[in-house]
Automatic annotation (TrEMBL):
The lineage of its organism: Bacteria, Bacillati, Actinomycetota, Actinomycetes, Micrococcales. InterPro entries: DUF5134. The chain crosses the membrane at residues 6-26, 47-68, 74-94, 106-127, 163-181. The keyword Membrane applies. Signal peptide: none annotated. Keywords: Membrane, Transmembrane, Transmembrane helix. The keyword Membrane applies. This is DUF5134 domain-containing protein. Coiled coil: none annotated. It comes from Brachybacterium alimentarium. It comes from the Bacteria.
Amino acid sequence: MIESPWSFVLTAIFLATAVLCALHLAQSHRTPAAVTTESVHASHNGPIATAVHVNHLVMSLAMLLMVWRPVGTAGTWIQVALFALFGVVMLLGLPTVHAVGERVAVVSHVMLNAAMIWMLLAMPLLMGHDMGGSADAHAGHHGGGTGDEMAMEMTPTPVWAEAVNWGAVVLSAVIAVWWLVRLLRDPAHRAHSACHLLMAAGMALMLALM
């Protein structure tokens, strides 16, 4: 789906986020529930943190798949439903987060889910093919299809779709910058911030390449 060298860059990014999210999940299960130090926030530990890390782990794996091959219509709608559900769960957990910075963090995750859903639904428009086509047809479109076949399959991207997509790119980039600031200001949670920084940056890059 994505041409090299960007496919390898995105693979490295989403492998890193998948590993970091898996480590965070493992660590959260080892953290005693009674821990209430000032450095521990609801968005770092507890149910909302688990939802965030599971969400980003699944998103990382979905992105890795998307980089290398199309998922088809059924796969697209399953992912849309899944990331919409994760978004609702995170929004429902928002009242349990009290610090302003932590609330912004949760909202940023929901926004990335919205960007992911946009990417899934808009991919046919952005990449100039019909989502109803088969995976093999898409593979031919990106690989060994003839010039006539490609000309027939390619359709111009609507202006409105390009505008919305670049809006999603800018939003993801802003979220990445916000996590970069948190990474620099909060040494105690640098791995946590780095994970979300990479996810937002990877989202912005992948949207920009489409």
